[in-house]
Write a structure and sequence with these properties.
By secondary structure, the chain is α/β, with parallel strands linked by helices. It has 12 helices and 15 strands. It has helices spanning about 20-25, 45-50, 65-75, 90-100, 175-190, 200-220, 225-250, 300-315, 340-355, 365-375, 380, 395-405; strands spanning about 5-15, 30-35, 55, 80, 85-90, 105-120, 120, 130-140, 150-155, 160-170, 280, 290-295, 315-320, 335, 360-365. The strands form 3 sheets. Strands 1, 2, 3, 4, 5, 6, 7, 8 and 10 form a 9-stranded mixed sheet that branches. It has a 4-stranded parallel sheet with strand order 14-13-12-15, with helices on both faces. It is globular, with a radius of gyration of 22 Å.
Length: about 425
């Protein structure tokens, strides 16, 4: 049996004596471990060295720069990045091992679901579970974007695989710790947000948008299901967005931020999925076409699965949202919902968007599926309307490529036997 490909775990830490030991223990399956310490005043460095990690001490230069120092110290083709407050679950470790035993040549990024543990309990819908992080990747000279304060993008050039298991994230254990996190991240984001030109924009940023986000995440995304923990977590996230604008309001007018694409603090770069402290920054010319289908009923599900599989063979990223227990479909990512209602579809599509923004959403199997697909927000259904399962994979991919960037033609690849 061929040995799996080697992988290095990379961590950046500072004053994490109480947490780093469990993080390092969870990546013991990795071939090497690199820890970059930003100037800890406790025993973080000693704990890391006692665990067998290679420790680099470097005064804190910022998140992205520190992560790049760790990446440059890795000497394996694959890298796994985690933080000191995260734990690789046994299921995720097993999935990584299986994937590295025979990684496809056209896949260079592994995504894993993150499960947030907040004030004594696990969060689900309130933390957008399954929220994906892009932590396993081919090193190949990649570096994080050092222009970003917290959301350090990482370019991806080819396909992504969704790993089994979870990355457990230990959030705040107390309200005081949670409030300090809100303050700290708002301070990190504020210097990178441009001052708006009218008082109305401040009102929108401080009041209107956080209020709308609160209701959207509590009601439409089902955050209320996580009881008081979920409500509190969403409230703190919205408070952080508002606090960014408060800091911007108090900044001198001549204190210009670095050039950014958008003034909104919660805005991801165009084409990039959500990523927390980590993200995969897909360029329009880089990312593959992505098509998602919504199917109602057994017959429609089988038809949609067959169509998507053919499109996947032609080089596209494909996913199927269905109310049928279709089992595992080769080349098709399956999202099963017990009831195919608008909110269930919305949550499934949001999970898919985190992995990669779709180009087209196709309803299959009756008026209900087609209607729900058309009612979804444009960010979840893509720019291409009118695709149908009667079209060939090449036709569907070409239509999406033309809509995305008319000057860039993405040729479908020939299906292999």
């Amino acid at each position: 049996m061929t040995a799996r490909q080697r992988v290095t775990a990379c961590l950046i830490v500072q004053d994490e004596e109480k947490r780093v030991h469990d993080a390092l223990r969870s990546v013991a399956f990795c071939d090497d471990v690199v820890v970059v310490d930003g100037g800890s005043r406790d025993r973080t460095v000693d704990v890391a060295r006692e665990a067998g990690a290679t420790v680099i001490e470097n005064p804190w230069p910022g998140y992205a720069r520190q992560r790049n120092i760790a990446l440059q110290a890795a000497n394996t083709e694959w890298v796994l990045e985690i933080d000191a407050d995260e734990r690789v679950s046994p299921e995720l470790a097993d999935s990584i091992e299986r994937f590295l035993a025979d990684p496809p040549a056209d896949v260079d990024v592994g995504a894993c679901a993150i499960r947030n543990h907040f004030m004594g309990g696990m969060l689900g819908p309130s933390a957008k579970y399954p929220q994906y992080r892009f932590r396993l990747f081919r090193r190949a000279g990649r570096l994080h974007d050092e222009q970003l304060p917290v959301h350090e993008g990482l370019p991806a050039s080819r396909g992504t695989v969704v790993l089994d298991g979870e990355l457990v994230h230990e959030l705040a254990e107390s309200l005081g710790e949670a409030a300090r996190d809100v303050w700290r991240y708002a301070r990190l984001q504020a210097p990178h947000v441009g001052k708006p030109h009218s008082p109305l924009q401040y009102l929108v940023g401080i009041v209107a948008r956080p209020a709308a986000k609160l209701m959207y995440r509590l009601v439409l995304e089902g955050g209320w299901r996580d009881s008081w923990r979920g409500t509190l977590k969403i409230g703190l996230d919205c408070a952080s967005d508002a606090l960014v604008w408060v800091f911007v309001l108090g900044r001198p007018s001549d204190d210009a931020p670095p050039a950014r694409e958008d003034h909104r603090p919660d805005r991801q770069r165009r084409g990039a999925p959500a990523g927390g402290h980590f993200g995969v920054a897909w360029g329009e010319e880089q990312r593959p076409v992505k098509i998602v289908a919504v199917a109602a009923g057994e017959t429609a599900t089988a038809r949609a699965a067959q169509w998507l599989a053919a499109i996947g063979c032609a080089g596209a990223e494909v996913a199927l949202v269905t109310d049928q227990p279709a089992g595992k479909l080769e080349g098709v990512r399956l999202r099963h919902t017990s009831h195919l209602g608008p909110l269930e579809i919305l949550r499934a599509l949001e999970a898919e968007r985190q992995l990669m923004r779709p180009d087209a959403l196709v309803g299959v199997g009756g008026v209900r599926a087609r209607l729900f697909a058309r009612l979804m927000p444009r960010s979840l259904r893509g720019a291409v309307d009118g695709l149908d399962v009667s079209q060939s994979g090449a036709e569907a991919i070409s239509a999406c490529a033309r809509a995305r960037a008319p000057e860039v033609d993405i040729e479908p690849r020939k299906a292999t036997a």
